[in-house]
């Protein structure tokens, strides 16, 4: 039920969310959850040491490096001593061995296909991420057969760091610093600082901190990593605080956009710097002609510790002039908040979205005729009966390549799927994982190339009634603003 709840309900009461945060301080519960997560990771790890993005999919090099990095973060913060946990340490050793083998294969490919240009730039995003992830576990030695490849790409990082993005430069700086190349690491930090922008409101950031469709084009994760770099390599407390300002400014409507961005941001904020929660916030807000004094709110009181408060208007209380909002802050530190307008609509009245992702969902009734089986398009006037066999057809148009995309198709409560076993599938050059759940079917794509795609799966009518068939929605995990949904329709079963 929670999975199907609209996201707006999750933000309905910030006080309740703070109460749920209290669960994080239940050490027994957190220890149990951590062990469960480690057991789950252990079960999902392939025999070659790699991890898939989703259970049932093939091993994924990026995801494996992401998990190794996450383990390194836990160890770096002192939240989990990876080296004293036998199971976790074995996983890390197998995972790093898998990554070392992949880096050797990259090197062997160059020797075989481009040996005459071996000194040119052969450094890719995956190889930079590898050096960064690997640097957390230097005490796990590199095998002799992989050592030459490791040294080659470390040399490539030292030579070609300037031609990479800020995000990748931060990774290279941390990796080289940990592998005792302090000089190059500090040169990278100096270059990053010289090319950064500063403002009282936004803190420290970079002009080219743009968003894209790939994991290496994620501005929140990039800013979090650069906080780590300025903290560990340069020990620059002021720069770290200024970088944190931009990170918090990017927090929109109470949530960072993805779980990955949130975990990376929390990791960065837990690193050294000023304790901003120790400062009591003092802010004046004017919305239209209404002045809001947080200290004199009758219905909503400021929360202790965070200073959070919330006020709202509904119906006729909302005036056009309330579109003008003025905020002034009188003390040190940073404050942030959001203003949003919320409304609800019936699923079957939703029209399709116009975005770079275009979805079209149709329902068909399967019939047997004298000339063979045929399908008939279902609309709101169609009359279905229990036992009818249906086919869902989803047409997807993508105008650019994307990575790590989820598509979710909702279905009417009067319909039941016939292919209830989740599995990895491959069609028309596209591999994806199809997961059947109680209220819908999920499709997970590690890589979704530009093009047009058609997905079909069967249903059976199981109940009489008048149902909303829901919508199909899709979203790119690394660029959540690129999302889309189909239109909704109603279906009638029985008289």
Using brief descriptors, characterize the structure shown:
495 residues; alpha+beta; Glycosyltransferase; Immunoglobulin-like; five-stranded antiparallel sheet; globular
Task: Describe the 3D structure.
The chain is an alpha+beta fold. A hairpin with a 3-residue loop joins strand 15 (430-436) and strand 16. The mean pLDDT is 84. It folds into 3 domains: 27-254, Glycosyltransferase, CATH 1.50.10.20; 280-329, no CATH class; 347-493, Alpha-macroglobulin, receptor-binding domain (Immunoglobulin-like). It starts with 6 loop residues before the first helix and ends with a strand. The strands form 6 sheets. It has a 6-stranded antiparallel beta sheet, with no helix packed on it. Helix 4 packs across helix 5 and helix 4 runs parallel beside helix 6. It contains 12 helices and 21 strands.
Compact overview of the structure:
Helix content is 34%, strand content 24%. By secondary structure, it is of the alpha+beta class. The strands form six sheets. Strands 14-15-16-12-19-20 form a six-stranded antiparallel sheet, with no helix packed on it. It has a five-stranded antiparallel sheet with strand order 9-8-11-17-13, with no helix packed on it.
């Amino acid at each position: 039920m929670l999975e199907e709840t609209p996201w707006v309900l999750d933000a309905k009461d910030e006080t309740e969310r703070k109460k749920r945060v209290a669960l994080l301080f239940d050490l027994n519960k957190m220890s149990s959850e951590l062990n469960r997560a480690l057991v789950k990771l252990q079960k999902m790890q392939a025999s070659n040491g790699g991890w898939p993005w989703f259970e049932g999919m093939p091993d994924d090099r990026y995801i494996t490096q992401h998990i190794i990095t996450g383990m390194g973060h836990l160890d770096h913060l002192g939240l989990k001593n990876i080296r004293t946990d036998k199971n976790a340490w074995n996983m890390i050793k197998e995972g790093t061995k898998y990554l070392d083998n992949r880096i050797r294969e990259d090197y062997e490919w160059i020797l075989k296909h481009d040996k005459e240009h071996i000194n040119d730039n052969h450094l890719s995003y995956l190889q930079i991420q590898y050096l960064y992830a690997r640097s957390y576990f230097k005490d796990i030695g590199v095998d002799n057969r992989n050592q030459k490849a490791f040294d080659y790409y470390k040399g490539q990082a030292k030579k070609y760091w300037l031609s990479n993005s800020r995000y990748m430069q931060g990774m290279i700086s941390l990796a080289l610093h940990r592998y005792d190349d302090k000089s190059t690491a500090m040169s990278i930090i100096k270059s990053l600082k010289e090319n950064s922008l500063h403002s009282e409101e936004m803190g420290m950031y970079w002009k080219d901190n743009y968003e894209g469709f790939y994991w290496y084009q994620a501005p929140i994760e990039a800013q979090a990593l650069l906080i780590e770099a300025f903290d560990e390599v340069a020990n620059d407390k002021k720069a770290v605080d200024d970088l944190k300002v931009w990170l918090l400014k990017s927090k929109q409507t109470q949530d960072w956009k993805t779980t990955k961005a949130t975990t990376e941001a929390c990791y960065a904020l837990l690193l050294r710097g000023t304790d901003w929660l120790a400062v009591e916030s003092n802010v004046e807000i004017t919305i239209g002609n209404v002045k809001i004094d947080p200290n004199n709110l009758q219905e909503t009181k400021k929360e202790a510790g965070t200073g959070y408060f919330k006020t709202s208007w509904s119906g006729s209380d909302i005036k056009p002039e309330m579109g003008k909002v003025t905020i002034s802050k009188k003390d040190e530190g940073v404050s942030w908040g959001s203003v949003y307008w919320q409304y609800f609509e019936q699923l079957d009245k939703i029209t399709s979205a116009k975005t770079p992702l275009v979805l079209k969902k149709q329902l068909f009734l399967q019939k047997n005729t004298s000339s063979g089986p045929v399908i008939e398009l279902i609309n709101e006037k169609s009359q279905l009966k229990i036992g009818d066999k249906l086919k869902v057809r989803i047409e997807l148009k993508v105008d650019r390549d994307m990575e790590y995309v989820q598509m979710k198709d909702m279905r009417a409560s009067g319909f039941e799927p016939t292919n209830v076993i989740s599995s990895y599938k491959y069609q028309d050059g596209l591999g994806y994982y199809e997961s059947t759940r109680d209220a819908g079917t999920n499709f997970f794509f590690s890589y979704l190339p530009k093009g047009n795609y058609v997905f079909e799966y069967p249903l059976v009518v199981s109940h009489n009634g008048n149902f909303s068939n829901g919508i199909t929605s899709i979203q790119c995990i690394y660029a959540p603003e690129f999302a889309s949904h189909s239109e909704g329709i109603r279906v009638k079963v029985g008289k």
